[in-house]
Automatic annotation (TrEMBL):
Protein name listed in UniProt: DUF4085 domain-containing protein
InterPro entries per the UniProt record, alphabetical: DUF4085
Lineage per the UniProt record: Bacteria, Bacillati, Bacillota, Bacilli, Bacillales
Length: 399
């Protein structure tokens, strides 16, 4: 029924237990680098092989096992034809799993067309590496709250709702702290079926329900400016929030829309429950029950979310005046520098002369080589670079 299975995931992982250098040239560079850095590469390789030796002997095709036993599978001494065969085996496993993911994605896209817009918007971005923060059940419903911190979504909190559940199956019960890894979604006669592989602990989970819906929330734009500052004051953070937005307090064990922000601790009132600071700790009182939310009041910073998206990098898209672009693009001010390059990137025909002058003055280093390559190739697609500019940066432009 499912393209995506634990067996397919394991086959992919098995093929990547022990990566190796892909050519004689790569081995030469690795050996030279190790010598320059004073690293005993052979001892390091031996240790890496020994760490996964037992697993390798269980999953490798028979033709590779002798090279595990003699310790050469991940060494320069491995015969070239064996190395190429081993790399082909790895690539075949990768291609097989990529085909599985592609088929799963195609099924998901077909099913999403029948689901509410919030669900479609949630799955526009991957939930890979989202962490289960809360699980709430009733006899026929399930709500899973996912925290996407460290994941691949601009949405910080995602709530998935399953109503009128027909089937729920898993090798292990779902639990808070598990990581959402891969998924597949299909339309069924009864409604929709979602199949997910979770990690820590690893399990396959399938649920079929009549309907799936979703909510999502974002971190306020100001969050990143304050999160790393241990000395900040919560009131100063709140003053940076957009007064026109609606905010919600979401913790692993409590959720309530924030009714108002105030000038005195705890600096906010809730639609549901009441906040209380006791012995420095933050608590919520709901229906006579006291729930601890945080070790200190300032930790509220991590629990304030909004349903309005604010681009945290919006300032980098603000255009730089034409008469300032050249100097700013080559300045030491990183934010202004990025803004200048983005201004040129968005308007290549408008700034032809400036772009060529900047690139002629640009000193390409190891630190900025990738950035320079992206911009040069972008400008070259518009055919606006002079022969002199292309000649100077021929190694980056492919000319």
């Amino acid at each position: 029924m499912w393209n995506l299975t634990m067996q397919a995931k394991k086959a992919f992982e098995h093929a990547n237990i022990l990566p190796i250098q892909e050519s004689d040239h790569d081995w030469k560079i690795a050996l030279e680098d190790a010598k320059e850095e004073g690293v005993d590469l052979y001892s390091q390789l031996k240790e890496e092989l020994n760490e996964c030796k037992e697993r390798l002997l269980q999953i490798l095709p028979e033709r590779f096992k002798q090279y595990v036993h003699d310790g050469t599978l991940n060494s320069p001494e491995l015969p070239k034809q064996v190395r190429e065969d081993y790399l082909l085996w790895i690539r075949a496993a990768e291609e097989t799993f990529e085909a599985v993911l592609d088929a799963s994605f195609e099924n998901k896209q077909k099913a999403l067309a029948f689901l509410p817009e919030p669900v479609q918007e949630v799955y526009e971005q991957s939930l890979h590496d989202a962490e289960i923060e809360r699980i709430e059940r009733s006899p026929s419903t399930l709500k899973i709250t996912l925290n996407t911190l460290g994941g691949f979504s601009t949405k910080s909190i995602v709530e998935l709702f399953f109503t009128d559940i027909f089937i729920e199956e898993s090798h292990l019960p779902l639990q808070v702290g598990q990581w959402y890894i891969y998924d597949e979604l299909i339309k069924t006669e009864n409604g929709f079926a979602l199949h997910v592989i979770f990690d820590c602990p690893e399990t396959e989970w399938t649920i079929e329900a009549k309907q799936i819906n979703a909510n999502y929330y974002y971190r306020p734009k100001a969050y990143d400016d304050f999160a790393e500052d241990k000395e900040f004051e919560l009131q100063a953070y709140i003053e940076k929030l957009n007064p026109d937005f609606t905010y919600t307090s979401i913790t692993p064990n409590f959720k309530s829309e924030i009714k108002t922000f105030t000038n005195e601790a705890p600096y906010m009132t809730l639609q549901e429950g009441e906040l209380l600071v006791e012995s420095g700790e933050l608590h919520a009182i709901l229906a006579g029950k006291q729930i601890k939310l945080a070790d200190c009041l300032n930790d509220c910073l991590h629990f304030i979310f909004t349903d309005e998206y604010e681009d945290p990098y919006a300032q980098f898209s603000e255009p730089v005046p034409a008469d300032e672009i050249e100097e700013v693009a080559l300045s030491e001010d990183l934010e202004l520098q990025v803004r200048a390059w983005n201004t040129m990137y968005a308007n290549p025909h408008e700034f032809v002369d400036i772009i060529n002058r900047v690139l002629m003055r640009l000193n390409v280093t190891e630190d900025n080589e990738m950035m320079a390559s992206v911009y040069i190739n972008h400008f070259n697609e518009y055919r606006i670079l002079t022969e002199e500019t292309l000649s100077k940066h021929c190694n980056l432009s492919g000319k």
